[in-house]
Design goal:
With 427 residues, the chain is mainly β. The protein contains six helices and 26 strands.
Length: 427
């Protein structure tokens, strides 16, 4: 999301119905993915403190040696992610290392502190490799580090079945296609609002290469989160993550996630291809005042720009140009969530509309509703005032199986489809 967009964010309270049992009707691959999409869309803001321990294991999968120990604080919002990782043990040796991360829409940052060395880094999005943390959100929705789009790319060849012993749906597909491609197998728990509880990466012959599992599930702000999650590579390593503290959907300013480099830090900016030391924060007079002798009087000249200021200005100019280009090309409003989780006993829902400040705002030209059994009682357009569209939708009491409706909105001449997903319930 661009910085010059205005956003209205609404955290929707969730009706807890964990005690309801679920009827195990057959679901297609598309229906199962849409249930997951709607469930995932509710996890908006998250923060947690997590401890991590990694072990070498033997042939019987027993723990043999503690190799890694670290703690991290993690925060995530729709347009950014922050982590502060402190390691005490690495590769079996004592380690005193701290790494701070920021992952934004346009760029990524790092501050690395180890021994007597400390430095900063700015890179393009996606260039920080193998960060030393694995978040709660990743454990639930991270697809074992594969992209979420793989679900849709392989939907036509994926297999879906219900595992009665595990009480989960199993979604299985070849990651890349072809006979030599590895497989991804996902266990999806309907009793936990269709969240993935286990991932397995399989060799082409379907022997297991790695497994990720989540345990000790709790409901926080109406959403299921694991308090323990693990990663296993048989005969090699076992990593356990324990959640010490967690918050879900308690809004915070996403700008607070960005890292501010401290004074004196040496920074490598790989976007602008410059290196600089962050200057001290002096007043304009302290940094620019120059004294003369003789008949000349004291004059104040503008301070010379530092490498940091030049790099920052160039980065902002690049972002502004990209934003202006996007605005000129399409001026496309963004609506969230695209998938709405429709609950029994609840009728009020809110769509957030993000628009460019430079534009007059998208005008709702009309809408088309295909409820599939759901009933739309009212649609209230509040884009100009609140950046919202409010919906009153009813799920009839006799709708106990899977239900799906669509709402097509005409915004600024562009069609936007919202999927209304009603999960199966016990009759």
């Amino acid at each position: 999301m661009c910085k010059n967009q205005k956003t209205a964010t609404v955290v929707i309270p969730l009706l807890i119905f964990s005690e309801l049992a679920f009827s195990q009707n057959e679901l297609s691959a598309v229906q199962l993915i849409r249930l997951m999409e709607a469930s995932k869309a509710r996890y908006v803001h998250m923060s947690a403190t997590v401890t991590c321990r990694a072990y070498l294991i033997g042939q019987e999968q027993e723990k043999k040696e503690l190799r890694t120990e670290r703690t991290f604080i993690w925060k995530q919002a729709p347009n950014g992610c922050f982590a502060d990782v402190r390691s005490t043990l690495a590769s079996g040796r004592k380690n005193d290392q701290r790494i701070q991360y920021f992952f934004g829409i346009d760029y990524e940052k790092q501050i690395v502190q180890e021994a007597n060395d400390i430095y900063g880094l700015i890179v393009q999005k996606g260039q920080i490799q193998a960060p030393l943390f694995y978040s709660v959100y990743q454990a639930i929705w991270g697809m074992a580090s594969y992209s979420w789009e793989r679900l849709w790319e392989r939907v036509d060849t994926a297999s879906v079945f219900y595992d009665a012993s595990a009480k989960c749906y199993v979604y299985e597909f070849q990651i890349h296609g072809g006979t030599k491609s590895p497989w991804l197998r996902i266990w999806i728990d309907p009793a936990k609002d269709y969240v993935p509880v286990q991932y397995e990466i399989l060799f082409p012959d379907k022997k297991m290469f790695a497994r990720e599992q989540s345990f000790n599930w709790r409901k926080v702000q109406g959403l299921w989160v694991p308090m323990i999650y693990t990663s296993l590579i048989p005969n090699s390593s076992y990593t356990e993550y324990r959640v010490e503290q967690i918050e879900v959907n308690i809004p915070f300013d996403a700008k607070s996630l960005d890292i501010e480099f401290p004074e004196g830090l040496w920074v490598e900016d790989r976007i602008r291809r410059v290196e600089y030391r962050v200057p001290s924060k002096k007043s304009p007079l302290e940094s620019s005042e120059q004294k003369t002798t003789g008949e000349c009087q004291k004059v104040c000249l503008p301070p010379a720009a530092t490498d940091e200021q030049l790099a920052e200005a160039a980065l902002k100019a690049q972002q502004l140009l990209a934003q202006q280009t996007q605005t000129v090309e399409k001026q496309s409003p963004v609506i969230s969530p695209e998938y709405v989780w429709i609950e029994p006993g609840r009728k009020e829902y809110v769509l957030t509309v993000e628009m460019d400040n430079a534009a007059s705002g998208p005008v709702l030209g009309g809408h088309q509703f295909d409820g599939g059994g759901l009933v739309l009682h009212q649609l209230r357009e509040q884009i100009a005032d609140k950046g919202q569209i409010q919906l009153t939708i009813e799920r009839p009491a006799d709708m106990t199986g899977y239900g799906e409706g669509t709402l097509v909105l005409d915004l600024a001449g562009q069609k936007k489809t919202i999927y209304l997903i009603a999960p199966p319930l016990q009759q």
